[in-house]
Amino acid sequence: xxxxxxxxxxxxxxxxxxxxxxxxxxxxxxxxxxxxxxxxxxxxxxxxxxxxxxxxxxxxxxxxxxxxxxxxxxxxxxxxxxxxxxxxxxxxxxxxxxxxxxxxxxxxxxxxxxxxxxxxxxxxxxxxxxxxxxxxxxxxxxxxxxxxxxxxxxxxxxxxxxxxxxxxxxxxxxxxxxxxxxxxxxxxxxxxxxxxxxxxxxxxxxxxxxxxxxxxxxxxxxxxxxxxxxxxxxxxxxxxxxxxxxxxxxxxxxxxxxxxxxxxxxxxxxx
Length: 271
Description:
271 residues; three-stranded antiparallel beta sheet; 9 helices; globular
């Protein structure tokens, strides 16, 4: 959800679900399915949205649809499920897989809201391609010597030092997860090393990151001519010479999410 129009679509979608739930001839299970809202993503956006949705129900929609409130909502109407990866989503069912057991499960829903991070806009992706900006996929492809699509422990250790130089946000990610060393990314919940690792998850997809990236990009534009003759960046992985600018480095200012009513959750930078 990045635009005001997105919020309007969600609001209309929520009301539509309530309208469907009060139609005559529906079974109780069908009514509950229409009123089951699934939020994918447990970050600040997902937490805040769940709280706002709960307040919207309690303060507005239950008054407009009094019959709906009798469908025995859970305490606070919210159930948290962790350790699951979404496999697919249909108009009626969301299918998931438990990360550590591989067991599959599904949940009926009236609406699914995806709030797992801020994606790069197509116009920015196109701009990066035009200026020859290397991305992390280039480095991973070079490190993936067996072309398996993932990195083994040895392949990861070979490339991770260069990744941190080129992408300092990896170090930020490690600290945000309260890990002692970057190689701890290779460990599972039991503290054992994984056989392989993918490339996703190294960037915190938050608005504060995007704002700092905007300031960084502005500086790059302003100093573009100067840096042609005096590049400050690291050596290139492809071609020769140095990058004109040092890599983007993000500072984590903490996170804050309202929990509905007068409650809130906060993570301070030193937490």
